[in-house]
Amino acid sequence: MSNKIYEFPKSIKKDVIPHYCGGCAHGVVHKLIGQVMDELGIQGDVILAAPVGCAVFAYRYLDIDGLESPHGRAGAVATGLKRAHPDKIVMTYQGDGDLLAIGASETLHAANRGEGIVTFFVNNAIYGMTGGQMAPTTMPGQVSSTTPFGRKVEDAGYPMKGCELLNTLERPYYIERCSTHDVKHILKTKAAIKKAFEYQKENKGYCLVEILGICTTNWGMGAVESTEWLIKEMLPYFPLKVFRDKGVRTDA
Amino acid sequence: MKKKILMRGNDAVAEAVIRAGCRHYYGYPITPQNEIPEYLAQKFPELGGTFVQAESEIAAACMVLGSSAAGVRTMTSTSSPGMTLKLEAISYMSGARLPCVIVNVMRGGPGLGNIAGSQSDYFQATKGGAHGDYQSIVLAPENVQEFADQTMLAFDLSDKYRVVAMVLGDGYLGQMSEPVVLPDPVQSVPKKPWALTGKKGRDQQVLASLRLLPDALGNHNIDLQNLYAEITKAEVRFDSYMTEDADYLIVAYGTCARVSRTAIKALRNSGIKVGLFRPITLWPFPSAQIGELAKKVKKILTIEMCMGQMVQDVRLSVGCKTEVDLYGVAGGVIPDVDKIVERIKSYE
User: Fold this and answer.
1) Residues in chain B within 8 Å Cβ distance of A109
2) Which of B60, B198, B209 has its CB closest to that of A46?
């Protein structure tokens, strides 16, 4: 007799062909979220505040109630959802431009109020949907369509560190940065997503999981090169760690 | 008889918000509407309401968007510069068919302008303001009583049609105190089967304005236009005063209508027959009614606390049948009764 060891997540729609590019991290992150929702049995209780950007159609793939947010405003939109439905799980799914540029204010203040929401923040150091422009997390020297000679920090500043910024606030409950560059780290990302959703089930408060991923199309590299670039360029600047976990006893 | 109490316009609006069954308010401080959030911040805790002072007008309107999608009655209030920032969410809510109420206590512009009452957001309120082909229902109160009543009405209209409903007051109406009979509290609020509650027990529901394919977005826009035509047919509201025998017609709303009534009395005392037509819905605009009246009068004077915005709708309503003059004041200046009298007399 054989054991089923892999199953397509129930929380992800099977009949929809995703629009994501080959190699894109979004597919991996969607799958992890779907798996975790299945494992926790929360699919029917989650409401998504979708972003603007590559994941604008996240509700086409995740089989959960979904609401469109204006660009960057998912933190505020999710606030309105959660305040009206304190017994539901409200998640946002946002990219770097959405979360840290146009939505920086909404992100910071939702976290500062300690809204009972979870944010999955996919950082691929570039604007994907609009065609590869500089993001707030674009690396120094990184070429994008609006930094054709590489990001100059004298002009555009340094990449913004979302987790570190939010970690200055008192109210957030859980903040972790993960990555999707290899299987080991994908599994760690899944564990972080699961922890964040568990905290939401328990109404613990604001959680953010940042997930580093590649953008082969707009980085102009193959999947292997992109992954190597993420490891070499992004990991030293965006350290993978748990910045905040109020669910862990620190006196142990 | 119900008891009349003396209330400031903004306080009466806030009390009407409570009586309309709204328990989700999101706002950002701006003069001259601050008494609305302050009143609700005081009252909501005992009512189990949600009051959030947002980080910006943009965020406040997006919180309204979120709560609206969740299926509850929700609103925000602001004044002109803040209204500009809320337009983003209004466009999205209009595209996603999300109801909400927005009270704009208008102040002088452009830019920071000042904090005195004004009517210079007429175009912004009635012609869209934000991007895309959309309309909001726009109600214009003339006094504190109407400010409260129309706030209640705005919730009903917004829920009925799933559009944004605005109450367009001004700094004078917000700040003045008048006797008011408070409307009765609603007994229940409408159920919203389209709301997002998590998909448990049913199929997924999505609320969005996004329709990527041209045909899909084109058809969505046609549906919206059909809805707007339905609203235009059913919801035009107006008031007329001494128009039956009028030789001259004043068209004015809000604070300007109040001043006009005084001028009309003075003019009638000197034997000049003048009437007032007051649009109550600025959108849908009472075009047909103005068009009919235009056939009977010699000349029309539009009076506005701006440099002439509604006058364009009056002229469109009238066609070339009758000459339409404008008396516009700006910056918080209130139209002068003597100047209105003088202007009408000059037509003789």
Assistant:
1) 54-55, 59
2) B198
* Contact call for residues A121 and A74 (beta carbons, < 8 A): no
Architecture (CATH level 2) of domain B5-235:
3-Layer(aba) Sandwich (3.40)
Question: Topology of domain B238-345, per CATH?
Answer: Rossmann fold (3.40.50)
Phi, psi (deg, nearest 5) at residue B30: -160, 135
- Cβ separation A89–B207 shorter than 8 A: no
Q: Is the ipTM of this complex over 0.90?
A: yes
Q: Report pLDDT digits (tens) over A146-188.
A: 999 999 999 999 999 999 999 999 999 999 999 999 999 999 9
pLDDT at site B321: 85
Q: Do A81 and B209 touch (CB under 8 A)?
A: no
> Domains along chain A?
25-245 (3.40.50.970)
| Residues contacting B182, CB < 8 A, separation 6+ | B2, B5, B7, B12, B15, B16, B19, B148
User: Is-contact B318 B295, C-beta < 8 A?
Assistant: no
Q: Per DSSP, what are the bridge partners of residue A90? A: A47, A117
* Residue ranges, chain A, pLDDT below 70: 1, 249-252
Three-class secondary structure of residue A176 per DSSP: strand
CB contact under 8 A, A81 and B66: yes
Instruction: Return the percentage of chain B with pLDDT > 70, whole number.
Output: 100
Point out the residue among B198, B205, B207 whose CB comes nearest to the CB of A68.
B207
Out of A65, A75, A83, name the one closest to residue B204 (CB). A65
pTM: 0.97
H-assigned helices in chain A: 25-40, 58-61, 74-84, 96-97, 104-113, 153-156, 162-166, 183-201, 216-219, 223-229, 235-237
- What pLDDT, in 10s, does the model give residues B16-53? 999 999 999 999 999 999 999 999 999 999 999 999 99
How many CA atoms lie within 13 Å of B151's alpha carbon, on the beta-carbon side?
A: 34
Determine the residue among A56, A67, A98 to mutate to test chain B binding: the one whose Cβ has the most chain B Cβ atoms within 10 Å.
A67
Triad B35, B24, A200: Cα angle to 5°: 135
Q: Do B210 and A56 touch (CB under 8 A)?
A: yes
So where are chain B's domains?
5-235, 238-345
Q: Are A71 and A135 in contact (CB under 8 A)?
A: no
Quote the minimal CA–CA distance from A70 to chain B in Å: 7
- The answer to whether the beta carbons of residues B249 and B256 sit under 8 Å apart is no
- Please indicate whether, in this complex, the C-beta atoms of B66 and A78 are within 8 angstroms of each other: yes
Give helix A74-84 / helix B57-70 axis angle, nearest 10°. Answer: 40
Q: Phi first, then psi: give them for residue B141, nearest 5 degrees.
A: -80, 155
| B270-284 per-position pLDDT tens digit | 999 999 999 999 999
The yes-or-no answer to whether B5-235 and B238-345 have a common fold is: yes
Judge whether A94 is closer than 8 Å to chain B, CB to CB.
no
**Residue of A15, A52, A63, A65 to mutate, interface with B, max B Cβ within 10 Å:** A65
Residues of chain B found within 8 Å of residue A88, distances taken between Cβ atoms: 197-198
Which residues are registered as beta bridge partners of B75?
A: B25, B101
Select the residue from A42, A73, A112 to test the B interface by mutation, using most B Cβ atoms within 10 A.
A73
User: Please, is B48 exposed, middle or buried when counting C-beta atoms within 10 Å of its C-beta (0-12, 13-18, 19+)?
Assistant: exposed
